[in-house]
Amino acid sequence: MNTPRQRLAALLSSLIYPSSSNPNYDFLSPLLLHFLNTSETATTLTLIPLSKKRKRTHFSEPGAPDSDGLTRFKLGRPDSFIPRNPDTFKKFFNINSSTFDWLCGLLEPLLDCRDPVDYPLNLNAETRLGIGLFRLATGANYSDISRRFSVSESVAKFCVKQLCRVLCTNYRFWVGFPNSGELESVSTQFESISGIPNCCGVICCVRFKVNEESIAAQLVVDSSSRIISIIAGFRGDKTDLQVLKSSTLFQDIEKGTILMNSQGLQINDVAVPKFLFGNGDYPLLNWLMLPFDDPGSQSNEENFNNAINLMRLPAVKAIESLKNWGVLRKPIEGEIKTTVASIGACSILHNMLLSREDYSAFCEDLSDYSFQKYQSSLSPGDSVACAIRSALVTKVTEFQSQKQ
């Protein structure tokens, strides 16, 4: 039976983040997992234990052994140890030992309070977190996880599902879309890179293989590679535009709930609203700017495209960083809703790690990456959208002339 502290944690969690209040956020509801909801406010909660908290093992950084002199993290079996050093923690968990300890303290009340009523697992929070992270980081099958952690495969599956559920239900605000004040900071950072003002993110789609099929996830990323919106679970054969139009992001922008409700900017007598940059199968819209199709060599339009590529690099790094999580790197076997939960959990962990300056799972090296020549199959856009893009071209030209 759960302890009073555990029941309190579950009750407070359900009151602050009720999974049934919005079907888009229900972990058990296929097929879409929406993390963008502008009507919700990020909330944090500190739980005061009702009884003395049991002592937790802390995983110190290399060179700082525990009082008992141990230098390895025991997984369960006598022959299953993880040496506590940067390489092995990164290899098995995609985080450093300090972040592991921080994350365990953050999630412990929720990881400990959701066991089956008639089947308590009697596993500490470190083991539960270790099992979940090991699966997400390595993509290991459950038989390997069972062997390493000395638990049954059913318990291993429960711990992985439990970690994903806690992250996606209780910590989804880590991938929430910025408010109007925060967007000013986002756009300022993009402008410092390219000279283009009012850009609030780069939108893109990525596909993940599931069994013999694939599912699509739509991301919006800021200049630091932080994911500020993610919607996953669409069929992989849908185009980027079809995914966009099916998303709450599109609906909220079209209704003026986000982006369009922010103050615009006048450039050469053209009103330039807050906008996103896209690529591929997207239309040119007032709030969605695209590169020029086949610009002339060394033209202002080509310089504009090059500036966009600089702004797209953080999004590319975010996508490649997600693929550094082993569970997303290779075809996933299992139900689509489980895959969607894994995508959500890895996205939240990605942002958490960035906030802690833990780059264990971050893809920094893009030396082998090259941007393909942009070519749109859609109409060039309406006159207003074209005028906005032309005005932005002048800002890039001014920015580059100031750098010379």
From N to C, what is the helix and strand string? HEEEHHHHHHEEEHHEEEEHHHH
Report strand order across the widest sheet: 1-6-5-4-9-10
Number of strands: 10
Overall pLDDT level: 79
- How many helices in DSSP terms? 13
Q: What proportion of the residues is helical, as a percent range?
A: 40-55%
What structural category arises from helix and sheet content? alpha+beta
Low-confidence stretches: 1-72
Percent of residues in beta strands: 5-15%
Task: Outline the structure in words.
Helix content is 43%, strand content 12%. The chain has 13 helices and ten strands. The strands form three sheets. The chain has a six-stranded mixed sheet. Helix 5 crosses helix 6 (153-170), helix 6 (153-170) crosses helix 12 (336-355) and helix 10 (300-322) packs across helix 13. The termini are far apart. Strand 2 and strand 3 form a beta hairpin. Mean pLDDT is 79; it is low at 1-72. It has helices at residues 4-16, 86-93, 97-111, 125-138, 142-149, 153-170, 180-194, 240-245, 248-254, 300-322, 326-329, 336-355, 383-403; strands at residues 33-34, 72-74, 81-83, 199-210, 213-221, 227-235, 265-267, 270-272, 275-277, 288-289. The chain is of the alpha+beta class. The longest helix has 23 residues, at 300-322. This is DDE Tnp4 domain-containing protein. Belongs to the HARBI1 family. Keywords: Hydrolase, Metal-binding, Nuclease, Nucleus. Residues 213-351 form the DDE Tnp4 domain.
